[in-house]
Design a protein that fits this description.
With about 290 residues, the protein is mostly helical. It folds into 2 domains: about 50 residues, no CATH class; about 230 residues, MetI-like fold. It contains 14 helices and no strands. Helix 4 packs across helix 7 and helix 12 runs antiparallel to helix 13. Belongs to the binding-protein-dependent transport system permease family.
């Protein structure tokens, strides 16, 4: 069907508007990227750089030679890996139990799960809990208090609702107990949901910031986000080499932002195909 002049003008205006929005959104990311790879002398000699004449890895080499920065990346990596695994085990097991009708008291437990979504205890009770558990200045303080999410439990329960209980009965006939049926049958079928929520948990643990400020006093245990915030507020890197001339502080900040962002950007494309199947099914059936 041929479109009229008004439709064509409206379509052109939409394309132009969205193109402008895309450019405005992408330019800060582009600027951060090119500044992090710019030669320090060029950065100091120019007011603004649209494209570097000479590329340099000086900022990245300086950051990766700093023990505090490398240690913070290791802390964030441990949080993302260990925290994601622990959270997936707890969330998936809990959600699967709530999805089985033979589970006694599941409606009351589901009610309390929904209650936690609506009402949060707040900062002070959480801090008192962490302190009473003896987790102050302990990296596990960033994992155990947020081991599971009521919202994720509800969504994942919706996914497990689509797996018929007849599979459990067939597994029981073949000699499987509940644990073996979970690992051998249910878990392989739930890979889309596990991949999706695993990515959500990994992003949350990698971006741990506020809880680290509350519970970690030792800078050697800071995750990368806290160290990055410390750099952005003009504080120098701890344990810097006094014999090595650092690049400009702004370049170090840009390089730190790129390094902090890259791991999640690399993970997303591999798990993106699971998003629709893993999340939409749970959200519809939950």
């Amino acid at each position: 069907m041929q479109r009229g002049i008004g439709d064509r003008l409206f379509h052109t205006a939409n394309v132009a508007f969205l193109a402008i929005v895309a450019i405005v959104t992408a330019f800060p990311l582009y600027y951060v990227f090119i500044i992090s790879f710019t030669e320090p002398t060029e950065y100091l000699s120019k007011t603004i750089i649209w494209f570097p004449e000479k590329w340099s890895l000086e900022s990245y080499l300086y950051l990766m030679s700093n023990s505090s920065f490398v240690r913070s990346i290791g802390v964030s990596g441990f949080l993302a890996l260990a925290g994601t695994i622990c959270s997936l085990v707890v969330t998936a097991s809990f959600a699967y139990s709530l999805s089985r009708k033979r589970f006694v008291g599941r409606k009351w437990i589901l009610f309390f799960v929904l209650f936690t979504i609506l009402f949060s205890p707040g900062i002070i009770p959480n801090y008192m809990l962490v302190r009473n558990l003896g987790l102050i200045d302990n990296i596990w303080a960033l994992i155990l208090p947020v081991l599971s999410s009521g919202w994720y439990v509800v969504l994942m329960k919706g996914f497990f609702d689509n797996i018929p209980e007849s599979l459990d009965e067939a597994a029981a006939i073949d000699g499987c107990n509940d644990v073996s049926a979970w690992f051998l049958i249910i878990l392989p079928l739930s890979m889309p949901a596990m991949a999706t929520f695993g990515l959500f948990y990994a992003v949350e643990y990698w971006n741990s910031y506020f809880s680290a400020l509350l519970y970690l006093n030792d800078y050697k245990k800071w995750p990368i986000q806290v160290l990055l915030q410390n750099m952005l507020t003009e504080n120098p890197l701890a344990e810097a080499d006094p014999l090595r001339q650092p690049p400009p502080a702004q370049m170090l900040k840009m390089a730190a932002v790129v390094i902090t962002t890259l791991p999640i950007l690399f993970i997303y494309p591999f798990l993106q195909k699971h998003f629709a199947k893993g999340v939409m099914v749970g959200s519809v059936k939950g």
